[in-house]
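Title: Comparing notes on inverse folding

I've been comparing how different people in this forum approach sequence design from structure. To keep things fair, I'm posting one structure and asking everyone to reply with a full sequence. Here's the target:
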């Protein structure tokens, strides 16, 4: 079992930056592929960024060049650095861990981008 807790969300103006943190407990994060998803009301949850156990990252086209995902296995933590935020980035952001058939989600953190 893995427990994931997101933090770092909040309200920011367009062009601003935020850092989201996903803290894991219950198991070593190093064996899990990690990802950040986001969801807005009435829409499906979408993949924003992912990072493999080996540190290889991938991004959705909508955030490529603006967001960066990283992991610190020693701290059992995954980060999402978000820069040049846009109003369309407004969503609840969820941390996701996967290993084989085992999938875990956090409860999410709200990010609001508005002037």
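Reply #1:
Here's my take.
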């Amino acid at each position: 079992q893995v427990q994931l807790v997101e933090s770092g969300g909040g309200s920011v103006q367009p062009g601003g930056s935020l850092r989201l943190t996903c803290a894991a407990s219950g198991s070593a994060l190093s064996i899990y592929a990690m990802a950040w998803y986001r969801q807005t009301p009435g829409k499906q949850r979408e993949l924003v960024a992912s990072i493999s156990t080996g540190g290889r990252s991938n991004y959705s086209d909508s955030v490529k060049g603006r967001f960066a995902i990283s992991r610190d296995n020693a701290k059992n933590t995954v980060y999402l650095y978000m820069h040049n935020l846009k109003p369309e980035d407004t969503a609840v952001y969820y941390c996701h861990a996967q290993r084989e058939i085992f999938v875990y989600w956090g409860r999410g953190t709200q990010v609001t981008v508005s002037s």
